[in-house]
Amino acid sequence: MATLLSPPRHYLNDGYGIKSWLLTRDHKRIALLYLASVTVFFFIGGAMAVLIRLELATPVGDLVSDETYNKLFTMHGVAMIFFFLIPAIPSVLGNFLIPIMIGAKDLAFPRLNLLSWYIYVVGGLFSLYAMIAGGVDTGWTFYTPFSTVSSTTQVVPTALGIFVVGFSGILTGLNFIVTIHRMRAPGMTWFRLPLFVWSSYATSLINVLGTPVVAITILLVAAERVLHFGFFDPSVGGDPVLFQHLFWFYSHPAVYIMILPAMGVISELVAAGCRKPVFGYTFVAFASLAIAVLGFLVWGHHMFVAGESVYSAMIFSVLSFLVAIPSAVKVFNWTATMYKGSVSWETPMLYAYGFIGLFTIGGLTGLFLAAIAVDVHVTDTYFIVAHFHYIMVGGTIMGYLGGLHYWWPKISGRLYHEGLAKIAAWIIFIGFNLTFFPQFVVGYLGMPRRYHAYPPEFQVLNVLSSAGASILGVGYLLPMAYLIWSLRYGRIAGSNPWGAVGLEWTTTSPPPTENFAQTPVVTWDAYEYPAPVETHVA
Amino acid sequence: MPPLFPERASTMAYRVDNLYFFLLAITAFFALLIAGLIVFFAVRYRRRAPDAVGERIHGNLVLELAWTGIPLVIVMVIFVWSTSVYFAMAKAPDETLNIYVVGKQWMWKFQHLDGQREINELHVPVGRDVRLITTSEDVIHDFFVPAFRVKADVIPGRYVSIWFHPTKPGRYHLFCAEYCGTRHSGMTGEIVVMDPSEFQAWMSGGAPEGSLASTGAKLFADLACNTCHRPDAQGRGPVLDGLFGRSQALQSGETVTVDEAYVRESILNPAAKVVAGFQPIMPTFQGLVSEEQLLALVEYVKSLATQPQQPPTARPANGPAPGENTPVKK
Amino acid sequence: MLPDAVEHHHPALAHQFDSLEQQKEAATLGMWIFLVTEVLFFGGLFLTYTTYRHLYPDAFAAASHELIVWAGTINTAVLITSSLTMALAVHAAQTGNRRLLVLFLIVTMILGTVFLGIKAFEYYSEWEERHVPGLNYAFDPRYYRHAQIFFSLYFLMTGLHALHMIIGLGIMAVMLRWSIRGTITPEYFTPIEISGLYWHFVDIVWIFLFPLLYLIGRHAHV
Q1: Which of B105, B155, B182 lies closest to A240 in CB terms?
Q2: CATH 3.40.50.720 assigned to B97-203
Q3: What is the DSSP letter of A333?
Q4: Which positions in chain A touch B62 (Cβ < 8 Å)?
Q5: Beta-carbon separation of B271 and C58 below 8 A
Q6: Among A150, A185, B298, C130, who pairs with C138 as Cys (CB 3.0-4.6 Å)?
Q7: pLDDT score at A102
């Protein structure tokens, strides 16, 4: 329906019918295809989390059998990591925004982009098959020889699913790198790029360099299971710890794939929410690259108790301390951005504050783990579980939700209900902390992870955690509801409802298929407020 | 109100906890600092008009250097402190009470040198350095005693050694801390730390089949190892007397220290590190001996060493630790 | 401000690009990045190989001796020659010589097929010799287990390489079709160039595989 504010022709109504979506080359439509698929996996992984926390409310394993529990935490990890956290921000927000933010009509390789989505779907189908056909119980980490010799579950289909979905990430990363190098509009120099583009670039570097290694590693696991090759089986002369090196060489950088895009989102939210440039733009940009590079050098910190030599452990320890520094630099710069800003309290900004605080805690607890002497005590306990959930849920998911809310008007042309959104943000924040903070305590007390039943003295903390999880669950359902509701009943959004600076806010909401009526020529820096072009404050 | 840290029942526990508290303090400081600043700025600079913008401040080099440099110094302090504690953890003292541990799905098997066997429960004396030599029969497990702050993966195909010095009699949780299959959360046990005199009494309850080394001696004969490994150097294999703990030159030109791992490897994969001057004719015993039989053979070879340093026996060389007289808690 | 849809309206120019030059640069950069990912993909296997060769040198040498060296040598020569013909094809495309382009593409494809044929022959012989882990494996008891690791790596690495060759042949078939149809011109021969990059890469992987797998300890007697 065309109104005075909503443009007559935009990417959402440019062609109807299922074929126009399933065969689209438009990066914006592909972003929405991804939005649908990652959301499906988020709720699958979330359902498993609910069952896990329900079970853990009592010390005895009385809800599900131990076999089932082992499958639950494995599939929770696989679904969340490979099918939600890694693809979500790059494939949804990155796909939608990067071409627009740099002033291009599309990514460098639109058909490759569509192929990446189909590859994701195929990988997802393998994993779903594995879940339905009985599940897999190796942990998302697939340690050998349990995964190759001992487990009797659907290891191979899951491994194939992960193998396939990895290529989706590789191709997306490739697409982003070429796009950012070659498709910037006239005048859009590297140091005028929004920081979200810098973060996406750093993420893509990791994606492209790291994912092939996990692909071959998981292929080796599948080959060993099916053909009994023996790379990781000590009874044949193989080395089970070699698997861990190969696995963590990717899986540590993978966690930076999960957090860097969220950091990019936060830079955008903080700049727009304070209406001033991000403090220390150049430092923040280079910090992203530093995190990407250093992230490849620290994998051994997952193996401090796994039989590493003392000297390699020391090297990994010092490097792990160093990788914390660029993240700290970012946190300080974001906080400094708020000084003398025009600070908004709208929902996207609330998610940004939440991110900065929770990521700080999660990141600082990483120092505990870089310190080998403490890591020896807390590794493989709930301390670790709390640490990575603070970063991935308190960090990445908050960044994702903040970004989704911030760019929702641009993506959909509609405004969501701000009051409900604020309430949901608070519920998520409170629920999150109640769920995961007690886990630091119970972890240091010695409760191991991946335990179906535990000694009764750990129960109080577990009950707190499970209570928090139920609140968090409600918090996540709310955005689903009101965002979908807004598609039909939300107020129409103007091109720049936030009064923000950025190329995406100079085009209509929703944008036309080719993004801009005319290719922009950029003569201003990334966050030059007040906006150099006329904006509509809705 | 649950405690915030487990009991401290080993010498290491204090050192680890102190480092932990320092880290907690740093975390609390910076988390509160950032949270406080965010809240303060959000309130103080709250947007007052719909089109108000912030002040165009691009950055400050001094601040950047400060908040890069200061965290760098802090983490380096933590690194140095942590590494010194880690070195102490990683290097066992010279004289230890050795006990063998075999992990398997889903139980812990303990083997004292004098032949005592235990399942899922390990008795150790307070006030002594105890070294556990561990291996797995199947998949990777992990030996974790929170009260001692000690943890190590127990890996099939190799020996991993950990040590601790218990300081308080009592019963402490033992957990498997590396996911190992269906009953991973059931692979738990207890470490029972006893006064030295009570430990003595418990040990002399004894093992009917004799010490581990004597079991190994019997196996050595049963498996006919003694036909090639003869003490009079007439056999086709190297002499094993006085060998354990020494350096050995290999066919390849490298040298190797004859430790538990080398003895185990030579039984399972004899062609891997052949001693200089000998032919690679020893058959492999892979699949013919269990992990526990391997431990017995290793102990037997160890017992043939004639060096001044005798492998410690069950009788403690020191007296009870000072001030420790409390009976074992149930 | 540059109004769109004014620049060259070359039929091969995709809508997201402003010029053929930009399109070519993007395609080339894209292919190079893809090849980097392939290096890391094979790299994991090379790392595994290096680890185990270091641990079990004698078993690896004994197993390597069982491979058919003359077949591997011929294959090496075949692949190197095919890289030459591929480079000549690119040059022909650049100079607009359609006949030569088609000819060199066909020769490249023939050489690639020869490679695969010889590889198939080798695999069949190895199956007859019972060197296939997981299927019918048997070996000298001294090195039985560790040679199994060698053969596992051999089949996995050469198999993955052969898969890349097959994909390469598919790409060449498409290039052949485009060349015959006249889609490739001196202004637009980017597809030939980047296909050439891919082909050279597959060749280089083999250059590493061959000595590592076939030539262990060949100068010494068993």
Answers
A1: B155
A2: no
A3: H
A4: none
A5: yes
A6: C130
A7: 96
Domain ranges for chain C, please list them: 37-214
> How does residue C9 score in pLDDT terms, banded at 50, 70 and 90?
confident
> What is the spatial distance between Cα B264 and Cα A232, in angstroms, rounded to a whole number?
19
Is residue B269 within 8 A of residue B284, CB to CB? The reply is: yes
Q: pLDDT per residue over A334-383, tens digit each? A: 999 999 999 999 999 999 999 999 999 999 999 999 999 999 999 999 99
Residue C210 has pLDDT above 90, yes or no: yes
Contact between A373 and B82 using a beta-carbon 8 Å cutoff: yes
User: In A405-493, where do the E strands start and end?
Assistant: 414-415, 491-492
What's the per-residue H, E or C state across A120-160?
A: HHHHHHHHHHHHHCCCCCCCCCCCCCHHHHHCCCCHHHHHH
Same fold, B97-203 and B212-303: no
Closest chain B CA to residue C58: B272
Two structure tokens written together for A452: 């179906």
More confident residue, B280 or B11: B11
Q: Which two tokens stand for residue C200?
A: 């050279």
pLDDT digits (tens, 9 = 90+) for C15-73: 999 999 999 999 999 999 999 999 999 999 999 999 999 888 888 999 999 999 999 99
**Three-state secondary-structure class, residue B276:** coil
Partner chains of C (3+ C-beta pairs under 8 Å): A, B
CATH topology for B212-303? Answer: Cytochrome Bc1 Complex; Chain D, domain 2 (1.10.760)
Global confidence as pTM:
0.91
CA A455, distance to chain mean position in Å, is 34
Question: What is the CATH number assigned to the segment(s) A17-505?
Answer: 1.20.210.10
Mean predicted lDDT score pLDDT of chain C: 91
Which positions of chain A have pLDDT values less than 70? 1-7, 531-538
- CA–CA distance, B114 with C50 (Å, rounded to integer): 43
Architecture of domain C37-214: Up-down Bundle (1.20)
Cα dihedral across residues A84, A88, A91, A92: positive or negative: positive
**Chain C, window 105-144: residues with a beta carbon less than 8 angstroms from a chain B beta carbon:** 142-143
pLDDT at A534: 42
In the prediction, which pLDDT does C165 show? 97
* C-alpha to C-alpha distance for A396 and A93, rounded to whole angstroms: 13
